[in-house]
């Protein structure tokens, strides 16, 4: 097998490491490795893969745990396809006869899926989509924080004000209501102080 023939590099990604297996079209294993995902480990992995000029990376979970490394590969001009975890799990069971997981068996099953399956979704380097995803995540996070704070506020007001406060309490209304509160218990004093801050 020459270095010019197409290979699939199956990757089992984690936060701090990535295990790869390089597979030819006839499912011959040409290479394996485990690399760190820090700058040096990533460079070593890409350098190792450059011995195969016609390569495509099959990365499990490109929209989840594999996103961080798939994005770096795309930015470096590499071709990347997303391997859904369900497909690689099925391939692992069929290839090994059992479902036991190791990083090496996961990388092998991901490479098998990348080699055998046509129609895996290729990733594209879409900066605008990435920015929108970050903004949407931030908006959702702010909404979650707001909901949590309002729930805490209502729980504390229930302890400080007989009957609590109405559901649609604005910040200005909460401030007016808190000005009338005179805590009678030891627990109520720090609660009122926290709410006023």
Automatic annotation (TrEMBL):
Gene Ontology BP terms: DNA transposition
Transmembrane segments: none
GO molecular function, one term: DNA binding
Pfam family, one: DEDD_Tnp_IS110
Domain (Transposase IS110-like N-terminal) ranges: 9-162
InterPro entries recorded: Transp_IS110-like_N (IPR002525), Transpos_IS110 (IPR047650)
Stored PANTHER family: TRANSPOSASE FOR INSERTION SEQUENCE ELEMENT IS1111A, TRANSPOSASE FOR INSERTION SEQUENCE ELEMENT IS1547
Name used for this protein in its record: Transposase IS110-like N-terminal domain-containing protein
The organism of origin for this protein: Paractinoplanes toevensis
Record lineage: Bacteria, Bacillati, Actinomycetota, Actinomycetes, Micromonosporales
């Amino acid at each position: 097998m020459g270095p010019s023939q197409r290979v699939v590099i199956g990757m089992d990604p984690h936060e701090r490491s990535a295990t790869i297996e390089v597979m030819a079209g006839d499912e011959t294993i040409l290479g394996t490795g485990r690399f760190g995902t820090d700058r040096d480990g990533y460079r070593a992995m890409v350098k190792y893969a450059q011995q195969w000029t016609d390569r495509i990376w099959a990365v499990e979970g490109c929209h989840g745990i594999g996103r961080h490394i798939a994005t770096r590969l795309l930015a470096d001009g590499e071709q990347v396809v997303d391997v859904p975890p369900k497909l690689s799990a099925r391939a692992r069971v069929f290839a090994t006869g059992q479902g036991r997981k190791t990083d090496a068996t996961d990388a092998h099953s991901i490479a098998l899926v990348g080699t055998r399956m046509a129609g895996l979704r290729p990733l594209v380097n879409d900066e605008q989509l990435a920015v929108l995803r970050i903004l949407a995540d931030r908006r959702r996070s702010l909404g979650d924080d707001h909901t949590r704070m309002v729930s805490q506020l209502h729980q504390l007001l229930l302890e400080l004000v007989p009957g609590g406060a109405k559901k649609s309490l604005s910040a200005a209304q909460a401030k007016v209501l808190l000005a009338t509160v005179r805590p009678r218990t030891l627990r109520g004093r720090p609660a009122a102080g926290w709410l006023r801050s």
